[in-house]
């Protein structure tokens, strides 16, 4: 929302437009997610898919495709795919899941647990491999420096979704196991957001990465570097 109003004069009407723009995107994305969830619930309830064992694989495929379809539809309409798939998942958890067969429920649960574990690992480990692959096809002047990779890894940790899942575990898990999960998750979130987030500026300084630099300054730096390179070439 903020990026859509870059370069415009800040006025009361402009702030109102920004709020309406944000609400419009949120409501539109929410509607797409809820629609996908209700459509899947109706399909599984009246489609009799759970009555045929050979249709278990089809059930699992549809459970995966409906939220993904909501994401792609919202993204294609310039809305928020993340909000759409979030509400699609919430709706399908309450209205679609009870209409699945036992085999499909077990297979779907195992499948999403596997994806969750792979996603958690990928979020932590993707910076360096992806940077290496990108640098293979870039000229030396456009390669991602190692210190930039360190900064990306350090500042890329998040905690919002972890908090949502941990809050649900308080209800789902017996005894006080859910509270243990929630307390541990909150500690991790506070550490990553407050400590890591708060110290990111110092880390950038330590890694000698410039920030709050204007485009003109960058252009001047590039021009100066080019002049120095030309001078070295002439001297050589």
TrEMBL record:
Catalytic activity: Na(+)(in) + H(+)(out) = Na(+)(out) + H(+)(in); K(+)(in) + H(+)(out) = K(+)(out) + H(+)(in)
InterPro entries reported for this sequence: Cation/H_exchanger_CPA1, Cation/H_exchanger_TM
Domain Cation/H+ exchanger transmembrane residues, every copy: 9-112
GO CC terms, sorted: membrane
Highest rank taxon of the organism: Eukaryota
Subcellular location: Membrane
Record flagged with keyword Cell wall biogenesis/degradation: no
Tagged with keyword Aminoacyl-tRNA synthetase: no
One Pfam family of this chain: Na_H_Exchanger
Keyword list, A-Z: Ion transport, Membrane, Sodium, Sodium transport, Transmembrane, Transmembrane helix, Transport
GO MF terms, alphabetically ordered: sodium:proton antiporter activity
Membrane topology: Multi-pass membrane protein
Residue ranges of the TM segments: 20-43, 79-96, 151-171, 177-197
Coarse class of the protein's main subcellular location: membrane
Protein name (database record): Cation/H+ exchanger transmembrane domain-containing protein
Source organism: Physcomitrium patens
């Amino acid at each position: 929302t903020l990026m859509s109003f870059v370069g415009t004069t800040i006025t009361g009407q402009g702030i109102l437009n920004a709020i309406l723009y944000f609400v419009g995107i949120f409501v539109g994305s929410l509607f797409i997610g809820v629609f996908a969830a209700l459509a899947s619930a109706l399909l599984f309830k009246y489609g009799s898919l759970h009555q045929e064992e050979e249709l278990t694989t089809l059930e699992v495929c549809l459970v995966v495709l409906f939220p993904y379809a909501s994401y792609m539809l919202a993204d294609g309409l310039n809305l928020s795919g993340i909000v759409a798939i979030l509400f699609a998942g919430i709706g399908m958890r309450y209205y679609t899941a009870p209409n699945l067969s036992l085999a499909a429920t077990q297979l779907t649960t195992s499948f999403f647990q596997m994806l969750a574990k792979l996603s958690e690992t990928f979020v932590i480990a993707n910076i360096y491999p992806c940077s290496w692959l990108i640098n293979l096809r870039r000229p030396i002047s456009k390669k991602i420096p190692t210190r930039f990779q360190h900064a990306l890894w350090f500042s890329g940790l998040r905690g919002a979704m972890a908090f949502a899942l941990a809050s649900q575990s308080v209800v789902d898990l017996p005894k006080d196991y859910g509270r243990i999960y929630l307390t541990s998750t909150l500690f991790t979130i506070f550490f990553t957001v407050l400590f890591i987030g708060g110290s990111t500026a110092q880390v950038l300084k330590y890694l000698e990465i410039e920030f709050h630099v204007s485009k003109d300054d960058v252009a001047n730096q590039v021009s100066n570097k080019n002049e120095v390179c030309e001078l070295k070439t002439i001297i050589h």
